[in-house]
């Protein structure tokens, strides 16, 4: 305890980073799987496919007409390097390579604490920086987010560094070249996650508000130059047309803005009030609303990002992750400045004290449990099991209760052939048409039944036998308890166990050599 107390007084940043690393290492070694569709199927599987001479999802093509993904390749390419390094070091097991991948991301995420601490000290003082540093290190969501392959999280350290440089520049502590470097970093952030253009726009507006017109123009010029280099030249080289991925992404999202999860304008406000743990969350959001007095430039950048996502119809929780550290920093500083100028009184002081105590009582067990959250365990372990079967030719993924079936994480099985999806609305005739398109060498000899925790396996098995009469149960891979809890709270996320069967007997439909083969996403 004496050592901790001395570090807290003399070297608080070192102590905070060590605490942050400790909880993130829990995630590195125990938090397998993936959190969302995008952080696996649009990042890890393409990166691994490139290592194997394939192109999952047709992300790299020299034909603009064949470009079916508007996603930037910058972050998948970074994971290509990470997974390639893991293989160079002798790692072949997919799960072991992902431990290495999570370790790299955990170390990278420590920059959030470092730059967040420095920014808070610059806008406040050492004591405020210590508190914010602890929040960034130990807030229950951050360690789990830090080891996932979320493109929403990767730009955070760069955005914090830009904020720190801009604040110091406006104080006269840094020369103009840091504004130019900020423009470059913002251009890289844009290429990681396009929506960060809103943050960059807020920084530019803040500079103009501070009458730094020339500097704002310089920032914008370097920002645009970085985008032209990465997406003008890069997209031309990769898909035969400059800015083709940007065009596809923006047109697709505008046309399909209401096709995904849509929520009211106050959705993200409710999310933040909940995840920051009330009543402390109320104080932080009140402080954020007033933090224009702390730094107008940084506040405008975070606010513009927040407002746009609140107005845009398509809303998912992870979209707002990118500015959560900024909201914590500005919220705490805004609240602290408010109370420092006022006599809170006994009642309000007691309320604030209770808010902090209640926050840490809930946050400490949450950060430990959530850091070890083994996401999508049934799917990952089920795919690993299939990949270990020497007689595997193919498999069928079947969900008797849902129309749309969640994709199988093929990366963990090392299996890259096309596989049939059979949902609740598929008819026997359509299944026959699918099966006749598969040659004997790829004809599935395993069946995966996606079974909800509250569903009867025998009912699902009866559904399966209506298509494949001769199946034999092999094993079940069950979801983790947090997945089960999430599924009970929100049925819409459709998490499930994987019951695996062996398909025996003859083909249910003869092979038709003239039929179109199943589309293969691994080219």
UniProtKB/TrEMBL annotation:
Keyword Chloroplast assigned: no
InterPro entries on file: GPI_mannosylTrfase (IPR005599)
Protein topology in the membrane: Multi-pass membrane protein
GO CC, one annotated term: endomembrane system
Key words of the record: Endoplasmic reticulum, Glycosyltransferase, Membrane, Transferase, Transmembrane, Transmembrane helix
Pfam families, alphabetized: Glyco_transf_22
Location of the protein in the cell: Endomembrane system; Endoplasmic reticulum membrane
Keyword Membrane among record annotations: yes
Predominant place of localization: membrane
Residue ranges of the TM segments: 12-36, 103-121, 127-143, 150-167, 179-205, 217-238, 265-289, 296-313, 319-339, 351-373
UniProt-listed Enzyme Commission number(s): 2.4.-.-
Name of this protein: Glycosyltransferase family 39 protein
